[in-house]
Amino acid sequence: MRRSLTRYYPDYAPEALFALVDDIESYPSFAPFCLRARVLAQAGNWRRVENIFGFRSWRSTFVSESRATPPRELVVESYDRPFRALRLRWLFEPRGAGCRLTCDWRMEFSSPLLNIAAALAAEEAQDRALAAFERRAALTIGKRETT
């Protein structure tokens, strides 16, 4: 399954949005279904992260790796179960005083049953995740003052 979304945020600079998205260990405090995100190893702009996601009684622990090119791009990948492949690419582009944010993701589970369930819930899950990041930005970054 592949999805992509693009939004324009006139009140946030790319650097500020990049910092918010790059702060992976804070995800459990605001991101839907994220129960834990812990950096296991780090070297320069590369990180290996242990993730625990859950919904109701379902829990999944997997390891992902991320590569950052601040403040332009963050790519997260995992080939650990429950995924056959997961790739998430955040792109932050300056647009006037704001930022054009593009998020492309590809996700394929090892289980055909999980692929079906994910396809049915993908749009709602994407909307919830984006809304959580937008609320977090409003709380932590705030809006720019206009002169």
The helical percent reads: 25-40%
Strands in their spatial order, largest beta sheet: 1-7-6-5-4-3-2
N-end to C-end Cα span: 44 Å
Spell out the helices and strands N to C. Answer: EHEEEEEEH
Number of strands: 7
What's the main sheet like? Answer: 7 strands, antiparallel
Total count of helical runs of at least 4 residues = 2
Plain-language structure description:
The chain is of the alpha+beta class. It is 26% helix and 48% strand. The protein contains two helices and seven strands. A hairpin with a 2-residue loop joins strand 2 and strand 3. The mean pLDDT is 91.
Brief overview:
The chain has 147 residues and is α+β, with helices and mostly antiparallel strands. The chain has helices at residues 14-22, 112-140, and strands at residues 2-9, 34-43, 46-55, 58-69, 73-78, 83-95, 98-109. 26% of the residues lie in helices and 48% in strands.
Q: Notable features of this structure?
A:
alpha+beta; single chain; globular; 147 residues; 7-stranded antiparallel β-sheet
